[in-house]
Design brief:
This protein is mostly helical. Helices cover 70% and strands 0% of the residues. The termini are far apart.
Amino acid sequence: MATTTLLCYPKPIFEQNHSTPTLHKPKIPQKTRHLTRKVSSRRLIWNQETVVGLVGSGLVLALVDPALASELPPLLLGSSLQLSEPANALSLPTWAIHVSSVVEWITAMALVWQYGEKSGFESWKGLSWGMVPLLGGAFCACTWHFFYNSESLEVLVALQAALTVIGNATMCFAAFRICNLSDKRSQKL
C-alpha cells in the first residue's frame, strides 16, 4: 500500500519565474522570504505523510523479530500473503546495506571512468577496470544470501574470496599506474 502510494504520487512541480527585468525589485520582508523558502523546499523534497509512513514501517520491521513478523496483521505488512523464511534469512536493513553497497560501487566505477575520460588521464580508466572483480565478489555474496546461504552454493563463498583477492590486486596495480603517470606528468612541468 505504501509502495503503491509512493509510486503513484505525482512528481514535484518545479516552477520557473520568467519575468522581465525591472529597475526596482519589490522588497520582500526577511520573514516572508524565509517561510517561502522553507515551504517550497519541503514541498519539493518531502511529503510528510509518506516519510512518516516509510519511517514507521521501517522501524516496525527492523525492531520486530523475524519469527514474529509473520504474525503481524496483514494490514501492517501490506499483504495477506504469509511468508515463512528460514532462521538464517537476512533482515530488511541488512539487505538494504548489501544492495546500496553494490549500487554505490557501480556508481563509483562509473564516476572513475568519467573522470578518466574528461580529464584525459587514461590510467583512471584502468582503476575502473580494476574494480570489476570486487563487483563480481559482491554479486556472489548477494546471490548466496538470496538463496538463504544454501550449502549447495558454497562455491560462491570461495569465488567471492578469490575475486576479492584478485580485485584488491588489480586495484593496487591500477593505483600504482596512476601514481607513476602522475609523477611523470609533474616532472614534465
